[in-house]
Amino acid sequence: MNLALSRFNLFTAVMSNKSMEANKGIISRLTQGLESGKYSDLTILCRGHEFPVHRVVLCTASKFFAAACDGPYKEAQNATIDLSEDDPQALKRMLRFLYTANYRELDEADLREEALQSPVSLTRTPNTSATPSNPKTPTTSTHKSTISPSPLPSLKRKRVDDNKSVDTTHESKKRTATAALNNALVYALAEKYNIKDLKDVSRTKFAARALNGSWNGTDILTTINTVYSTTPAGDRGLRDSILSVYARNHSRLLQNPELPTLLTKDSELALDVLKTVTGTLEGENTFLQGKNSSLKHSIEEWQRAARKTQEVLEKTSRDASRTSK
C-alpha cells in the first residue's frame, strides 16, 4: 500500500513538472508571437505606435475586442483598432499580460524624473462596447512597436559622473511611486476593456507597493489623483490601498500646498480622506485609551503590592515587639 502511494505521489510530481514545462513552452511560443508580430491578424494603433497582435488572444480575453472584430465596424474591415486615448506603455503591459499572464511593473525609462509628470488621457467611465471609428479620420502611424522585456534597474548606488551619485533612498521612493502609477494605469485599462484577471493582478501589484514601499509626498498625491481619475466611484480596488498610504503620511501631507487643490477638485476623494483621517484618529484614540487602561491597571497592581508590603512590614514589626517583651 505504501509502495503504491509512493508511486502515485511520484507520478503526480512528474506530471506536475511536465505540466509546468508545457505551460512554460506555451507562454514562450505566445511571447515569440507577440514580440515578432508573426502571423498577426490585427493591429492596435496608439499615438504613433503599431502593435501587431492576434485576434484569438485579444478577443477571447475581452468582450470589447470581440465586439470590435466581430461587429460591422471599420475595425473589423481594416483589421485595425485605434486606442490613441490610452497610454502606450500601459497598453504594452496589458498586451503582454494577455499573452503571458503577467507583466513588468518597471523598465529603465520609468526611473526618469519625467515619468510621473507626463499627462495621461484615460476616461473615468469604462467603455462597455466597441464602437466604429470615424470613417473620415485617417488612422496613421509612424512606426511599429515591438513588445520586448526590459531588465529591471538595480537598487545599488549608481555613478552618474565622476562627482555625483544617485541617492538610493530617492531611487527607492521613485521606484515605488512609478511602479504604483504603472499598475494603476494597467488597472484602468483592465476596467475599461473588462479584463477581470488583469484587474486582479494589477490590484495585487499595486497593493504590494502601497503596503511595502516608501513614498515622498508629491508622488503620493500624484498617485492618488491618478487612481481617483481613472477608476469608477464604486471601485475600491486601488482606492483603499492608496488611502492607507495617505493615512500613514497624513501629518506631512497637510504641509503640501497641492493637497487643498486636489481635495477641492474631487469631492469623492475629499470625503474618503475625511473618513480615513477620522478612522485613523479614532484608532489612535482607542490605542491611547488602551494604553491608559493598561497604565491604570499597572498602578492599581503596584498599589496593592505596596499595601501588601506595608502589611508584612507592620506584622514583622509587631512580632519583633512581642519578642522583645
Structural class designation: mainly alpha
Helicity, in percent? 55-70%
What is the CA-based Rg, rounded?
A: 30 Å
Alpha-carbon distance between the two ends: 87 Å
Number of helical segments with 4 or more residues: 12
Low-confidence stretches: 113-130, 134-143, 148-167
Query: What's the number of extended β-strand segments?
Result: 4
Beta-strand percent range = under 5%
Descriptive notes:
Mean pLDDT is 76; it is low at 113-130, 134-143 and 148-167. This protein has a four-stranded mixed β-sheet. The radius of gyration is 30 Å and the shape is elongated. The protein has twelve helices and four strands; from the N terminus they run H-E-E-H-H-H-E-H-E-H-H-H-H-H-H-H. A hairpin with a 2-residue loop joins strand 1 (42-46) and strand 2. The chain has helices at 2-36, 55-61, 63-70, 74-78, 88-100, 168-192, 196-212, 217-230, 239-248, 250-253, 258-265, 267-324; strands at residues 42-46, 49-53, 80-82, 143-144. It is mainly α. It is 63% helix and 5% strand. The protein starts with a helix and ends with a helix.
